Amino acid sequence: MSGVHAGLDLERPPRFGTWRRLLALLGLAAIVAAWLQTGAASDGLSVETSVADGVPVELWVPEAVDAPAPGVVVVHGFAGSRQLMRSTALALARAGYVVAVPDLAGHGGNRAPLPRGDRADAALAAQVGATLGVLAARPDVDADRLGVLGHSLGAGAALGAAVGDPERIGATVAVSPTDAQVTPELPEELLLMAGSRERRFVANAEDLLERAGGPTPLGVDGPARELVIVPGVEHVTILFSTAMQREAVAWFDAVFDVDREAAPSPVRLGAWYLLHLGGVLLLWRAVAPVVVDRADGEVVRGSPLLGLLAGGGVALGVLAIADAMVDLAGFGGMLVGPVLAVWLLLTGAVWLRMGDRPPAPTARELPWAVVTAGVLVAAVGLLAPRVWLPFWPDLVRIGYVPAFALAALPFTLAFTASARGRRGWHGLGWYLLVAALVLGLSALTAAIIPALSLVSLVLPLLPLCLGLTMVVWSPIQRPWAGAVAAAVLIGWLPAVTLPLV
């Protein structure tokens, strides 16, 4: 069955009147405020870079420190980088600590493969130890007051380093922790934190607390132990929580006898990033209806929901068979990413075949694809290095971007074809339904196939990418332009985040 969903009725395109001008100015103001505030977050600090045993390290140093200050190593988790830990690092540095943030092997700017197998924990703990050596060697750091803070995979590495080197590491903070070999004696003063919305990691933290001897306040015989559940956050948003920052600073202050007249101001990089994202989208939605042109051609209607379900089933079956024959975990030289690309390709191919299909692309699709991708990049990527992830992939990672984007294109094309003509509440309802199915299908695949188990930590990014694409693409209603832009975004994110192996 075929039919036509017309694009926007632009026979009389809207004028750039007073309300649109006000919305555009509001969007520009939000963008400017976000950039100014993220820059102001590092006022009074200097940033340096170093390399410790092949590990790239970023150092944040308070400029107004008269005596040697305590130092803290801040360690990212799986698919993270030193950029993802920027809020935590700045909160500690603004509190007077010298902070070192490494890129663990396989992550960020570290081109070494991520250690795997029985020696992985020890290898990652050694990288934390090497970073700690950078702090200990500095004349502006008090080598007798050193601590570590890690998140997720990095919490395990931080705990491993603290258990193995209690003479140097006097305080440990483990955020959303994984497993570690803790005892009632080691590590020294230990604070565990997890978000109220990440039950798995709350359970991990409770188990670690029990094995570490149970809750013990500071100042009594033996190492202190405490567990804090941070309300209203999950595995990623906990890194931008001012409550988490406050608890971490207070713990290190108490252990290292730091006196301060007032609590340091919180770092709200996540809020400013969202303001920037919203500002770009608001500016675009104010301007786009004035400049877009009519989308031509018919969309051949099919069964998009059935096609999506069938595609997810085919992808699951093919990957399950492949996983039984070869090791998918390290397939393609990157953990999770290439297998996720195959899942997108298989799911998208079936979805596109059974669902709605757009007409052949015309020459007018290319400039609109560039514009749509440019708006998405401006919204998601430009401010990202100041807040949560790298922007430019290095030479090792850059080849993954086009490969992942091409693999995602049938998937994103099936999505934009099915979304064409659905606007307002109808469009929102359609997006939420598709997002729920995508999340469910990918989560099921991740649960069944061991090679994709870790992808559950980054699964929310997929429907978020589709949602952002729909917001930007809706005024244009050109399926190929939206599909190419979404594929670029989906290809770029795993290429700059997921670990090399």
Would you spell out the secondary-structure blueprint of this structure?
Layout: H1 18-40, E1 45-52, E2 55-62, E3 69-75, H2 86-94, E4 98-102, H3 120-136, E5 141-151, H4 153-164, E6 169-175, E7 190-195, H5 199-211, E8 225-230, H6 242-255, H7 269-291, H8 304-325, H9 337-354, H10 365-380, H11 400-419, H12 424-448, H13 461-473, H14 479-497
Parallel strand pairs: 3-4, 3-5, 5-6, 6-7, 7-8
Antiparallel strand pairs: 1-2, 2-4
Helix pairs in contact: 1-7, 2-6, 3-4, 7-10, 8-9, 8-12, 9-11, 10-14, 11-14, 12-13, 13-14
What does this structure look like?
Strands 1-2-4-3-5-6-7-8 form an 8-stranded mixed β-sheet, sandwiched between helices. The protein starts with 17 loop residues before the first helix and ends with a helix. Strand 1 and strand 2 form a beta hairpin. The longest helix is centred in the C-terminal third of the chain and has 25 residues, at 424-448. The model is unreliable at 1-11 (pLDDT under 50). With 501 residues, the protein is an alpha/beta fold. The chain has 2 domains: 44-266, 3-Layer(aba) Sandwich (Rossmann fold); 302-497, no CATH class. The protein is built from 14 helices and 8 strands. Helix content is 49%, strand content 12%.
Short synopsis of the structure:
The chain has 501 residues and is of the alpha/beta class. The protein contains 14 helices and eight strands. It has helices at residues 18-40, 86-94, 120-136, 153-164, 199-211, 242-255, 269-291, 304-325, 337-354, 365-380, 400-419, 424-448, 461-473, 479-497, and strands spanning 45-52, 55-62, 69-75, 98-102, 141-151, 169-175, 190-195, 225-230.
